[in-house]
Design brief:
Beta Polymerase, domain 2, single chain
Length: 397
Amino acid sequence: MSFFIPDHVYELMRVLNENGFECFIVGGAVRNYLLQIPVHDYDLTTNALPEEMLEVFRSYHTIRTGLQHGTLTVMNHHYPVEITTYRKDTGYKDHRHPDQVIFTSALKEDCMRRDFTVNALCFHPDTGIIDFFGGQEDLKNRIIRCIGSAEDRFNEDALRILRAIRFSSRLDFRIEEKTAEAVIKLKRSLVYISRERIHDEFNGILEGKGCAKLLDAYRSVIEEFIPGLKSLSAEQWAEHMACIDRSPCSYTVRAATLLRTMPDPKGILQELKYSGQEIRTVTDMIRNASLDLSSRASVRQALRILSVPFADYVQFRKACDPALDTDAVLALYDIIRTNNDACTLKDLDINGTDLKEAGLSGKQIGTALNFLLDQVIEEKVPNKKEALLAYLSQHFF
């Protein structure tokens, strides 16, 4: 298996090398390559100082947003590539950001400041993989392990606590013993982390195939930012984990599954800075957790109510009720789609203007349209304008 490096990345490495500087691919790209997972992002690290990078890439379009921290983004063939000077950090008073960044000429010193062994792997076509801390062995053994002292790494940046759980969930790895102990011991330092960053990491945890077992093992950590989960009994928690284990790797479906018995799921999501769309998706599934799906008409009524994609809703229902015959439900859904059955007001072959011309006004129009949709769904009248007006004159006025 050869490490494929896209042309737009390799060209920048070559330019730095030709100007006398080291340059390596570092972090997630190397990790994913070794795990045979698709690589989408390539981060580069170099001994070139920021001002030296600016000179080397003077003919390229560059973005200097992170330059004070040693990161230059170089645009090449319309792709952004982040290149960061080797650096070492000098303390983290706020448990998140380094007090001072000091540039270094040593690749190992740069790797020492990183979080986990599997994220400190480097690659260059001429040298192959450089592994200072046993990251390849940890990949082989499917382990997430901090570089050096786990407590030091988490005290430097408390977000790493959730990153450890996220990587373990996404990769289905176990967390090494001392790292796991530090995760629990320092969980309260998550108070220093913004809700937005917790939101992102939590979604990553929920998307992992190892999600249920990680939530179970680190329940007390999750309760640091979702304290309402403390109200669940051991039996309720076990049932929630079983539901999550049955669900697809969708963070919205799993969030709905986890929060469905909470008194205020919307408030929890708002506190974690979920977007309006995310909140609507999760709460819509929770609010409609018991819709009848046993007939074509009932599925049409469900589609009338739901704002969430129906496939996601069915996955949520199946996770909560393994006895649900999803094949039968989806077969009904396919029939509805094939027939273009009316399920919402916009599907009716009649609108408010038609009813206004028929003599209705104000709230009567909305009431009449909903009445007609019910009748169409129950197949008491065809979805044709003339038939709908005739039916309305007989049964509504």
